[in-house]
């Protein structure tokens, strides 16, 4: 597995080794020891899966407060997404900055979104399935979000008529969001 650094420290892409032939392919999508060898030492405790039936579905920007914050390891099983991570660590040199990457069943890339980052996706094709590992259980009391189209973030979502949940339509802007993450040097 190959680790690819991004412009946001702590957010990484992972590219698996894919063994393909005329029958299809085989790959290891998760091997704890290999991730540890890449410096990623998360204790994932839960898998989540979602299906979006249409292209243009936006889910996010989501995070949990620091007491129950989650690191996510996200991959696409079928279809494709534009995956976004936003730095929400107060005092960070990249606070409010974001990156967007395409994850797909074809490129088989994964993204590591650590604690202190909001996360969102936009489906690029119908019937897209996501699988993501988390290192903390879901906690409704700690569940928070940021408005997907906050003009101060300026995320360039690839959807002309996005499909959103009522919850995601009503999230606050970054400047009004409840955030309890603080940046620490070397983090």
Automatic annotation (TrEMBL):
Q: What class of enzyme is it?
A: isomerase
Originating species: Paenibacillus hemerocallicola
**Ligase: is it a keyword of this entry?**
no
Q: Which reaction does it catalyse?
A: dTDP-4-dehydro-6-deoxy-alpha-D-glucose = dTDP-4-dehydro-beta-L-rhamnose
The name this protein goes by in its record: dTDP-4-dehydrorhamnose 3,5-epimerase
Task: Tell me where the signal peptide lies.
Answer: none
Site Participates in a stacking interaction with the thymidine ring of dTDP-4-oxo-6-deoxyglucose: which residues? 138
Role summary: Catalyzes the epimerization of the C3' and C5'positions of dTDP-6-deoxy-D-xylo-4-hexulose, forming dTDP-6-deoxy-L-lyxo-4-hexulose.
Which portions of this protein are annotated as coiled-coil regions? none
Q: In which pathway does it act?
A: Carbohydrate biosynthesis; dTDP-L-rhamnose biosynthesis
Q: Does the keyword Methyltransferase apply?
A: no
Out of the domains of life, which is the source?
Bacteria
Name any one GO molecular function. Answer: dTDP-4-dehydrorhamnose 3,5-epimerase activity
């Amino acid at each position: 597995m190959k680790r690819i650094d991004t412009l946001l420290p702590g957010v990484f892409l992972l590219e698996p080794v894919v063994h393909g032939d005329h029958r299809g392919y085989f790959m290891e999508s998760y091997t704890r020891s290999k991730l540890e060898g890449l410096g990623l030492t998360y204790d994932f405790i839960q898998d989540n899966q979602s299906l979006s039936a249409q292209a243009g579905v936006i889910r996010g920007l989501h995070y949990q407060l620091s007491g129950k914050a989650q690191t996510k390891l996200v991959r696409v099983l079928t279809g494709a997404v534009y995956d976004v991570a936003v730095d929400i660590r107060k005092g960070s040199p990249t606070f409010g900055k974001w990156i967007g990457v395409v994850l797909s069943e074809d490129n088989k890339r994964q993204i590591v979104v650590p604690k202190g980052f909001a996360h969102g996706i936009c489906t690029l094709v119908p019937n897209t399935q996501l699988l993501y590992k988390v290192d903390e259980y879901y906690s409704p009391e700690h569940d928070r979000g940021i408005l997907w189209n906050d003009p101060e973030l300026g995320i360039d979502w690839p959807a002309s008529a996005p499909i959103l949940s009522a919850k995601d339509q009503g999230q606050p802007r970054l400047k009004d969001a409840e955030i309890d993450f603080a940046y620490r040097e070397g983090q």
